[in-house]
Amino acid sequence: MKGNRVAHISVILVLLLLLQAMADFGPALHAETDDAAMEQSHTSADAKAASSWIIKWAVPLAEMNEQFVQESTIVKQLADLQVVEAMPKPGVDAGQWAERWSQHADVVYLHDNRPVQLAAAPNDPLYTNQNYLKQIGMEAAWEHENSNADMVIAVVDTGVDLNHPDLKDRITGGINLLNKNLRPQDDNGHGTNVAGIIAAVSNNQIGVSGMLWDARIMPVKVMDSKGSGDEMKLGEGIKYAVDEGAKIIVLSLGLFKYSQYLKEVVDYAEDKGVLLVAATGNEGQSVKYPAAYHSVVAVGGVRSDNQPEPKSNSGPEIDLVAPYRVFTTSLGGGYGVSEGTSMAAPQVAAAAALIWKRYPDYKPYQVRSLLQQSAQNLGSPGWDERTGYGLLRVDRALTIKPEIDFYEPNDRSTQAKTLPVDTQISASFSSSTDVDWYSVQIPYKGTLEIKFPGATNEQLRSIALETYVGGAKKEEVSDLTKGAKFSVEPGTVLLRARLNETARAAGFEYRLETYFHIYRDAFENNDKQYLAYSLPARDHTLKATFHQVNDVDWYMIHVKEKGTLQIRAEPDTYRMDLELMVQRMGENGRAYDYTDEGETEYTPKLQVEPGYYYIRVRNLNYQSDSYPVRGEYTLSVNYLKTYEDPNEPNDKTYQATTMVSGRTYEGVMYPNEDVDWFVFNVTQDSYASFLLDNIPKDRTMSLAVLNSSLKQMAVYVNDEGDTSISHGMYLAKGTYYLRLQANRAFDTQMYRVRTTLTRLVSGFRDIQGHWAEKYIVDLASKDIVSGYPDFRFAPNGKLTRAEATFMLVQALSPSRTNRTPAFKDVNRNHWAYEAIAQASAEGWIAGYPDGTFAPNKLLTRMEMAVLLSQAMQVKGIAGRSAPFKDVPGTQWGADRVRALKQLGWISGYEDNTFRPGSTSTRAEFVSMLYNLVNRKK
């Protein structure tokens, strides 16, 4: 009878939804309205307020009463259900019409067509703040199931506010494991947040609504007012809840490290048919335990836009996600916002309770499977490390048809379904010929182990497993009674599961578990000090693992010279909490544990003397075994020899080290207050170049120049990261000092300092001995040419068209002009504007066809020859002979080159080339300019 009644109500609800699409909305219907009220006749007032009516006939619609048809407007007909939507025609009194036909013998029922909600909604006033419930399809789910008072859900947390008006009637039993003489009263607030998500009383017109409108919560207090607890209490709390009859246990706490104790407690719960639901954690790192155990439903978090919450822990163990931010009950009888994966986990626990209400015979793994297969995919199809199988959808979990194997179709390699590297799934061989393909992403080199828990020996003998990489078969195991382990490398491995040809099994359901075992690193066996792996005494970086229980890694360095030693160990997973220990042979060692889980551990810079030094690296797990970790650590050894300063003592001016020009001096800055003084003599006016290099990248140094009276003339400082200082200055004859200082001491590398004195020739430091020296000196003395601010002439430097024009004007001093040069790229702001204007007025220069002069373009040797000949009014000598072998007689400017060569002003190169297209150097131009200025008539 109950099943028929539910079916009847379901049909009515479907009908109402269909008819509502055609109707205007009338007065809202409260959730607590019962079925009997739907069958009562309306009063005249109610009838007049209605826009249309729903009439169920006891006869086929074709046999409806003719009078009804005449006085009614038929809006819609559902012949199969013998239902119509109708309204009285204009002029017919609606109240009388409804009253008359509701009592007609052929009418089963008649009532106004009332608006319906898409899903049931509670009347709790703060329900509008619980948007996360809509996100997971809760309103639609309530149309199917909304309670499970037969099932106890344990909240293993900080306790629950036992007096909260929205929770106090939902509490059953419980315990305070911190003090068994006290009740499990929450003194932190977290457990109250969790309990409200699951079981806050609904439809009581106060506060919020729990996902379960009727439920029983067992508070198990294992954490104190600060939200702190320990592994033992956590395990004890789980076992208590199991033994006291809880069917679902919510765990909103955890730890990064594997615990065999917790594993045994989790297995105990599974053996008793209890489902554990746990939060993955909020560090944006690896999934925490107990969520990481195979049989536990691991729940991560998403934002309101269904994007993964960055702080939500993720990895191969994650099953699904739920909203990270919720509005729920709070300590002290209040309500508020709370967030974390610990708020996502109770949503999944409540969903599991509703699944069990619908499927009471399900085992925990079947509930877990239905949660997975009903989740809303948020990324690429299938499972992914950020969101698992997707977003919790309670409505789907209660409405979809559960599949024994929701990984199908996966009969071909191209259909391979993603299988996390550490997980448990449930699937099936539908027949003896069924083949299941899975794709496993391997993070490191190691071993992939496959187990089939619950399978009989006959079933294990019938299963064959094969691995494929890049389309090629790698390994096969055809009898799983002895287990199945495969060697794997980082990347994608395809796993093919099938039944042997000789198998008698016709197919069966199975649970498959994957276990990844990290590789044994190349430095094993080094678990004992006397087995320490020897490392060279230099900078060294290596990667290693903890591949076995209580794995400890020892290394040794033979230090032959005094120096500094610094060790760093960086894990790539939060499941490592590294500790370093350094010990000199024959002495006591010192341990270093400055940082927390997942963080780089390090030693300070240790001053070391010659000898043997041992380094121990281990994964801390106080008072317990340390278990293998899926991850690597990077060990960095930094050994630097320390140096003695050969120039010490030179901390005072009277101790200054005498410098010879061009010689390099090395030193260190140690201790912090060290100052190094150097002295040198200048015998004639010179340009002094100072170079200080090989400065450590994390240091700054200053180089100060002082005269004989110790008056500071200049000081130069490098930026941190720059390893050198290079500057120069003019110095007259005399004695000078250099003072070197550093912001911090260093003695593991030596700085280099050099002073180079260069005699100045006509004020230039780079023309002594140059082939054009006399030309430059001559023209410089006449103020025709000049150099650069750093006392260079740069004789081999290239010459621009503007520079050549300027020198030419300086040499020939043409009359000044007010004419503006007709070049669109030379304005009054150009440094050579006046010279270009004068040269243009004299007709010495011409621009390009596009109206530009291109002042910054390099001057070619041919342009140089033409420019000089025009300035000197040297007429070209016509002819067809080549003045140089690379200057054809017909080339532009050949006549000018021929004339200048005949005058002896140009001579070309030894190979009888002129190289007209090459750019002119400053020295070449000066030599020609010299000939021009000093020409003999």
- In percent, how much strand structure appears in the residues? 25-35%
Distance between the termini: 134 Å
Question: Could you name the CATH class of the largest domain?
Answer: Alpha Beta
* Overall 3D form: elongated
- The level of helicity is 10-25%
The gyration radius over C-alpha positions equals 46 Å
| Name given to the CATH homologous superfamily of the largest domain | Peptidase S8/S53 domain
What is the makeup of the main sheet?
A: 7 strands, parallel
Uncertain runs are 1-48, 116-120
Class based on secondary structure composition and strand pairing: alpha+beta
- How do the strands of the widest beta sheet line up side by side? 6-7-5-8-9-10-11
Q: Into how many domains do the coordinates divide?
A: 6
Can you put this structure into words, describing what you see?
The protein has 937 residues and is an alpha+beta fold. It has six domains: 2-112, no CATH class; 125-399, Peptidase S8/S53 domain (Rossmann fold, 3-Layer(aba) Sandwich); 413-518, Jelly Rolls; 537-621, Jelly Rolls, CATH 2.60.120; 653-759, Jelly Rolls (Sandwich), CATH 2.60.120; 773-933, no CATH class. The protein is built from 20 helices and 41 strands. A seven-stranded parallel sheet has the order 6-7-5-8-9-10-11, with helices on both faces. The protein has a five-stranded mixed sheet with strand order 14-16-21-18-19. Helix 18 (861-871) crosses helix 19. Mean pLDDT is 88; it is low at 1-48 and 116-120.
